[in-house]
Amino acid sequence: MRRREFIAGIGGTVAAPVLWPVPTQAQQAARMRRVGLMLSGLPADDREAQARITAFVQGLQERGWTDGRNVRIDYRFGLCDPDRQRKYATELVMLAPDVVLAGGNGALAAFQQVTSTLPIVFAHVVDPVGLGYVATLARPGGNATGFMQVEFSLSVKWLELLKQIAPGVTRAVVVRNPGTAYEVSQFAAIQAVAPSLRMEVTPVGREADEIERGVTVFAREPKGGLIVTGQFPQIQPDHIIALAARHRLPAVYPFRGFVTAGGLISFGNDQAEPYRLAAGYVDRILKGEKPADLPVQAPTKFETIINLKTAKALGIDVPPDVLVRAGEVIE
Distance between CA atoms of 29 and 242, rounded to whole angstroms? Predict the structure, then answer.
């Protein structure tokens, strides 16, 4: 930050000393505010991580906060490692920020383990009430609030979309984490609606060998499709995409990144939007509001992404109504 220099040049004879007024508090430069930011699962050089950070920084700029001018942002990347997340949460809290942004459940859990008073804004968190992060959505009640990633009803859309894009499919293998309560609930929602779509669903775990073995066995029978409910650190998206291609399984994914990497179709909330919205809550907290008074918000902006090259390789003619709803078509 550049310092302003005031140079007074006085010429001629001065009969009396010049008395400069003492600056009032309002006239003094505002102090630099500080924000800590940690993403749970993505590395710093990941394209999606950079998109989320950019959305947050732009959201702050729209509200008058510029990194390096009147706010300083410190970054950490937890890489789905609870020990690393706890370490970085401790580091960021020790920097005495005014507020921290937690990107994902892991980051939020780590921050709540090391502070009960520092304001926390979160983005991309699932089931914050069920996991005990907040008391209720309308009145969080503690030091954390923010923006959820998904609702359980979203998982039903994945099965419906699979049936729409590949009407001949009667079976679906669902990749999910059985150790996470919200993904268990997601699968339960998929399972509940399956009979109405004349579908059978089969779950597989999230470990690389479980996915490889489970999908391979599932694909031995015809008329199958694949649904992925999350992004798992144990297996790279490219591996799941290649597995689906090898077994010629039409697949529905939760995030755009799967489709840009060669997957067939995705449906989910805009991954950058929660971070842009989170900037609004950070702004309000920096201006004096409390997290306990700011309601947790569900996603409202969703997008469908289709890879027509992959559809052609699978022999799928994408229905016109699905194409019309698509926010992006990759050719």
Answer: 56
**Fold assignment, 33-149+271-300:** Rossmann fold (3.40.50)
Beta strands in the chain (DSSP E): 33-39, 71-77, 99-103, 120-125, 144-148, 171-175, 200-204, 224-228, 251-253, 265-269, 302-307, 328-330
Does 152-270+303-330 match 33-149+271-300 at the fold level? yes
Calculate the alpha carbon distances from 196 to 156, 163, 188, 190, 254 in Å: 11, 11, 14, 11, 22
Q: What is the pTM of this model?
A: 0.81
* CATH number, span 152-270+303-330: 3.40.50.2300
Contact indicator for 80, 40 with CB cutoff of 8 Å: yes
Average pLDDT across each block of 10 residues of the chain; the chain has 331 residues. List them in order: 37 38 45 96 88 97 97 94 96 98 96 98 92 96 93 86 97 89 86 97 91 96 94 73 97 92 94 95 98 95 94 96 94 90
SS3 annotation, 254-294: CCHHHHHCCCCEEEEECCCHHHHHHHHHHHHHHCCCCHHHC
Domain map (residue ranges) of the chain? 33-149+271-300, 152-270+303-330
| Kind of pairing between the strands at 302-307 and 265-269 | antiparallel
3-state secondary structure of 124: strand
Q: Burial of 240 by CB count in 10 Å (0-12 exposed, 13-18 middle, 19+ buried)?
A: buried
